[in-house]
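sanity check this record:
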Amino acid sequence: MIHHRREITKETGSNRERGAAIIIALMVSLVLAFLGLGLLMQTSLGLQAAGTDRWVVRALYAADAGTQAEIATLSTGAVAQGAFVLADDTALPGMLTGQYNVVVDDVCELEPGWQPLGTGPGWITRHFHFRSSATRDAGLLVGLTQAAITQDVTIGPIPDSNLQDSIYCY
């Protein structure tokens, strides 16, 4: 007599559950990878912005140096506008070094000079308006960063024997 043995297998669903767990694990890994890439990109952009801010601040300081030079010139009674070059620290490597081309222009007198109270004849106070701008050049990269300052100043009292004529602002 031959008996056939029949095995009854019961599908428990554990194979299906293992497949779903793998798919969920892959989806969670994918989401975490995108979050990680987003944070990495945000950090990278933040560092670039900080680097750009550094050059803008330096350009602003260079433009401020132009205003200080113009104030010193006006304090002598002379009226000047011109350009000069400020160089970065030459010991800095590569793109960190450069120079700022500073231009002082739009120098004009706001109103006629007047003799301040308490001073004798021959002394005068003057009111000026001018603009100082700085552009950073690094190697062949001209105009990489720019800044400008517009300033109104009162200079005096200064001896009127040193005065130079100026253009009045309109």
